[in-house]
Amino acid sequence: MSPIIDIDHLSKRYDSGTFALKDVSLQMQEGEILALLGPNGAGKTTLISIICGLVTPTEGTVRVGGHDIRTDWRAARKLIGLVPQEITLEPFEKVIDCVRFTRGLYGEAPDDAYIEKLLRSLALWEKRDARTRELSGGMKRRVLIAKALSHRPKVLFLDEPTAGVDVALRREMWEVVRELRAEGVTIILTTHYLEEAEDMADRIGVINRGQLLLVQPKAELMGEFGKKRLMIDLYEPLANLPPELAERGLTLSADGRQLGYDYDTRAERTGIARLLGDLTAHGIAVRDVATKQSSLEDIFMSLVAEPKKETA
Ligand SMILES: Nc1ncnc2c1ncn2[C@@H]1O[C@H](COP(=O)(O)OP(=O)(O)OP(=O)(O)O)[C@@H](O)[C@H]1O
């Protein structure tokens, strides 16, 4: 199947000299959700803006649904909906009017039945005659989504859709995104909430300093970088860790009540059985053991960690 989004060797150097994107290539299939993660200034918004035709690339090409975004921009843009990071709404306009108006901007004929379905699915139908300034922040975000979907795009960009949205509303928005995916809409979302990416994305892309460091299926990424931490609670606090145990990679908590051991889940031998045997041999009684899987947050931090500066 040909990809719905095909990004080929894309680079962007702003006039200021900033290299916001460096040789980014990425393909997406229809109905996929990609979460794009990266620290502030990594290049996420620049990438989205190029695909949406708001920023011109310095090098490379982008095709959406097979249409080149520069030479065939009208056809490409019809396939795209963008929910911007900042809330940009006309304060005195009614909800339904601003969604209808956006549809008109794409040259689509009025379709009130579709607009009603859209507003209902975003729980905005009751508010259709409210002026946008009367809405809560979460509702305003949903109006932005309704506007972005008003012309039935096949690809939706959500640039930090849940920034500043409370937990309950955030989960509600995730539900909306899942429903869209079920309808076959392809979604790229940028987020600083790793929980959001972990929960929703099929694939995760990590971008840092303009470079796409990796794009991988979420499960694969979590497995590949997957480390586990074994936590061992002790009956009696230990004053010091015997040197032989420290050499094996065990660490002792400051209060002396817990031992920690990091291991690779993919390793043939994790060393846990031998470790527990060694504890018994040293007369250390174990009260409880628990393990913790490294989270996407740990993985992300290890990928974008700044290299330590050399000190003379
Ligand atoms: N219009 C512009 N002119 C010059 N430099 C820009 C412009 N827009 C962005 N940049 C620079 O390009 C780099 C990437 O910015 P971008 O907004 O794409 O990052 P981001 O990953 O979306 O960040 P954030 O998470 O903070 O939204 C930054 O160094 C930024 O300062």
TrEMBL record:
> Taxonomic lineage per UniProt?
Bacteria, Pseudomonadati, Pseudomonadota, Alphaproteobacteria, Rhodobacterales
PANTHER family attached to this UniProt entry: ABC TRANSPORTER ATP-BINDING PROTEIN
Cite the ABC transporter domain residue spans from the record.
Answer: 5-234
Which GO molecular function terms does the record list? ATP binding; ATP hydrolysis activity
Designated name of the protein: ABC-2 type transport system ATP-binding protein
**Can you name the source organism?**
Paracoccus laeviglucosivorans
Entries under SUPFAM superfamilies matching the protein: P-loop containing nucleoside triphosphate hydrolases (SSF52540)
Q: Which UniProt keywords apply?
A: ATP-binding, Nucleotide-binding, Transport
Q: Which SMART domains match?
A: AAA
